[in-house]
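[agent] plan:
  1. take the single chain provided in the ticket
  2. run structure prediction with default settings
  3. attach structure tokens to the ticket
  4. add a short note for the reviewer (M.T.)
[agent] executing step 1
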Amino acid sequence: MLKRKGFIGVVSALVIAMVLIITFVVDNGKCQVEANVGVVDMEAIFTQVVAPPLIEARDQLQAEYEEKSETLSEDEQKELLDSYQQQLYELELQQWTAIENALDKVGQRHDFEIIVESGAVLYGGVDVTAEVLEELK
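[agent] step 2 finished; step 3 output follows
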């Protein structure tokens, strides 16, 4: 048992040493790759583009449901509710498709390698939130 623990300790030490060596090499710029990175504030996109039409549609469908559901059986109410949920899902999908298209256009315009959510970036990158919002108008 002691031999096995010793072997595991040696293997663990080797793995840690390899990770440290790789980190040192990358930190010294020997493996660095320059990337043109865009960042976008998806919370702003959601609150300004996705949420308003979804909230409006949800409120309208909820009012319709409350009006119609009183005269429907339980099964019919469930069908109506499912139908409304499907409509909201399709509207949300349309919104996200439009956002993806806008991100693609802005990304190609700037020749970005990648566009990431701004919350995932500590520093760096080009903020393209305003351009994406403009593209969505």
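[agent] step 4 note for reviewer: The radius of gyration is 26 Å.
[agent] ticket updated
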